[in-house]
Specification:
It contains nine helices and 20 strands. By secondary structure, it is of the alpha+beta class. It is globular, with a radius of gyration of 20 Å. Bound molecules: uridine-diphosphate-2(N-acetylglucosaminyl) butyric acid.
Length: about 325
Amino acid sequence: MKRIENYDLSNHNTFGMKVKAALYIEYDNVEELQSLDLKSLPQPVFHMGAGSNLLFKGDFPGTVLHSGIKFIKYVDMGLDEVLLTVGSGVVFDDFIANVAGNGLWGPENLSLIPGEVGASAVQNIGAYGVEAKDIISGVVCLDTSDWTKTVFKVGECAYGYRDSRFKHERGRYIITSVLFRVTRKYSPKLDYGGVRAALEGRDLQALTPMDVREAIIGIRNAKLPDPAQIGSAGSFFKNPVISREHFEIFATPDTPHYDLPDGTVKVPAAWLIDQCGFRGKTLGGAQVYEKQPLVIVNASGNATPEEVITLENQIIAAVQDRYEITLHPEVDHI
Ligand code: EPU
């Protein structure tokens, strides 16, 4: 178990904010986690993943916990369906590479999303028409109140768009592993805008999960900043859902949107932000990413949390003012 005081978190948040935690603890297995007396640690206690979807508002006065539980175990190799259990500290993309490398379908559309397996089940990460909940079978947790093990079936996790019970009962459960259900059965999901086009000219019937993974990686690399090169936390805002009447007030035939089954309309936040003139706008070291205005980047490498938050608030105010739509951050503010 790693236990370090006054710990520099610069390498633990993809935004690259230069902040510290009073105490950092990384445990390697369930028993080490259960040996901790959370109440005696500097407060508050915050459990993090890879730090790819959060913004530290400043130095963290309490304890940052991190899972070092790393295993990928195939538990049931059925004829079509395959069940595997994966440690919460495994890098999510390593899990996908492993599954796709074994010729199994399921998570390939989520390729290259930064972050770890535990956080994927908290955040219900999603991309290109697939969400984590579509492949999760169960979530194994410890209840922090008495360290008992609890297993939630996917139907008990209250999954929604970037949402779950683990977000609403924050701090109560720590996810130690996740059960995923994947399949040998040919089942590429190519209907999300841009995916089929990226595979143009290919014999679709001969596609492997690895082929789709590579196509997705290509699409993401063209649009999203590589956190190793330029700091960001991916999409900064959620895409808002509004009523059709509201949409029709400002829409023209060219306004991008997606009609949802319940009659509401999802409007890309990137489009709203762009319309308000924020594409490429800088504020100190922070910047609205030129290629994708849904992303705020640490352009200088030295952006401060205050600069990012000021830019965020300017965007929210401008979109509210012009469209009467309230953007909500997708990135957690800690
Ligand atoms: N949409 C559809 N069908 C399509 C295309 C888009 O329903 O065929 C919807 C999507 O639900 C999406 C919205 O329209 O919410 C805008 O889609 P776009 O592809 O332009 O993606 P985006 O808004 O830039 C979202 C996610 C990304 C994810 C991409 C690809 C959020 C906040 N962001 O971004 O996730 O990679 O779609 O699926 O939902 C992230 O969460 O950090 C992130 C990068």
